[in-house]
Design goal:
Order of helices and strands: EEEHEHHEHEHEEHH
Strand order of the largest sheet: 3-8-7-6-5-4
Number of domains: 1
CATH class: Alpha Beta
Number of helices: 7
Helix content: 40-55%
CATH architecture: 2-Layer Sandwich
Strand content: 15-25%
Structural class: alpha+beta
Oligomer: single chain
Distance between the termini: 49 Å
Largest sheet: 6 strands, mixed
Number of strands: 8
CATH superfamily: TT1751-like domain
Radius of gyration: 18 Å
Length: 176
């Protein structure tokens, strides 16, 4: 079912339902050990990447290629959501990661710019109870599937597999 409305004649809003596949991943390793392993496995986006894009794009590409992690993924940003809960007196272990690869994102967005809505991927890692870690995310290919572009979905199917492999590897390393 798609709906649309026209607000004061200046712009049109349309809405349509989207089917999303949500993944939950649990491991019996501690939060700190798991997040340390994940952060070790994944690369990290160079700090001045955006500046390089504007002035030295080839250098930016080289830097991303050299800093991508084992699974061609990198941490774009980390938000300590658990610390924010301290405002309500409910401090917990929870981090929201933005994970992706700008070069992979361009493989999608060159075909459909709307894929930028889902790159990088949002991955929540939290501790539901001591000694246990949960990971939650929406499967990237299911998010971009709404655009009906096989070329975009194919890129994200690869990202689905890379992310799952990285999470499994982090779980394995956090048990050693």
């Amino acid at each position: 079912m798609t709906s649309s409305s026209n607000l004061s004649g200046t712009f049109k809003i349309s809405s349509s339902p989207v089917q999303i596949l949500h993944r939950s991943f649990e491991t019996d390793s501690g939060f700190e050990r798991f997040t340390e392993a994940l952060e070790k496995i994944l690369g990290h986006l160079p700090k001045d990447f955006e500046q390089d894009l504007g002035t030295r794009p080839q250098l930016a590409v080289q830097r991303v290629k050299s800093t991508a992690g084992d699974h061609d993924l990198m941490i774009v940003s980390v938000f300590d959501h658990g610390a924010v809960l301290n405002v309500k007196g409910a401090r917990t272990n929870a981090k929201l990661y933005l994970i992706g690869n700008p070069l992979t994102a361009t493989d999608m967005t060159k075909h459909d710019i709307r894929a930028a809505l889902y790159a990088p991927i949002r991955v929540l890692v939290y501790e539901p109870r001591a000694g246990q870690t949960s990971v939650e995310y929406d499967l990237p290919s299911s998010l971009v599937g709404q655009f009906g572009r096989d070329d975009v979905t194919q890129v994200e199917l690869t990202v689905d597999a890379e992310l799952e492999q990285a999470l499994a590897q982090a779980a394995e390393l956090s048990h050693q």
